[in-house]
Structure of Adenine DNA glycosylase:
Amino acid sequence: MTSRTPLPPSPAELARLHEDVVTWFASAARDLPWRRGVSPWAVMVSELMLQQTPVARVMPVYEAWMDRWPTPAALAADPPGEAVRAWGRLGYPRRALRLHAAATAIVADHGGQVPRERDALLSLPGVGDYTAAAIISFAFSGRAVVMDTNIRRVFARVVSGVQFPATAVTAAERELATALVPDHVPHVWAAATMELGALVCTARSPRCQECPVAELCGWRAAGYPAHEGPARRGQSWEGTDRQCRGRLMAVLRDAVTAVPKASLDVVWPDVQQRERCLDTLVADGLVEPVDADSFALPGHR
DNA sequence: CAGACGTGGTG
DNA sequence: TCACCAAGTCT
């Protein structure tokens, strides 16, 4: 307990917070394709794509995806490898596989409609605590405690008075977020706080001059103290399995037909590591051996 | 629960 | 330039 436990704001402060954030959102919200009253499936697709991936990079892939697979049934009818191919360079291609598996489950277990119950959503591949809440909130205008990296940062600063939230969500943090969800249009609150974190209360250089709740901000009131505690673990990259897997997947993605193993061999010099990565890709279901000497994306014909 | 898992833009 | 960061999930 090195950091002080934040006291929930008074009812008056809470009302002010809600009003100021929601009012700001009404004029500042970006016109994103998945915010235009689209289907729950479209919201779900956007959420999977946005996991750890910036909006700008998601946009074109999302549009092409929805044109091609406007329903879960449409996606489920195609082989998973096509989903992986269409995922392009969004990164974390297992998400494409999970989205395909989720579509299949939605067809099999939910009549082809994205379910609206939290438990049903959580049982779908690729849907965790955040994404389930986001779908409930953004697709169904329901009440949910949405906690993504943006919202967590906004609450950490405004309410708790610290620069960054803890690495993992704490019980106290969840209680706070729950207490902050308003009775009226809770889904707008979720979208508005997320947008505030994305556009104003950013990680690197927050635009406090433009912040609608600067006057209420605990971090500002405290004089912007620097983050205490362990720095975030940097993600290593050069020479990692992740880089190797990425290289292999790029070859498979860009090939129309099965790829001879020799074509994979040339993209990574370390034989041991290359073989290991190819094995894990196959184990993950991202790659399928076609015969003794060639590979392809899963489900290819 | 810490670590694996892609990719590319940017302060 | 080069770490850091981006609407997380799974094990």
Q: What stands out?
A: Confidence is low (pLDDT under 50) at residues 1-5 of chain A. Strands of chain A lie at 259-260, 288-291, 294-296. Residues 11-28 of chain A form the longest helix (18 residues).
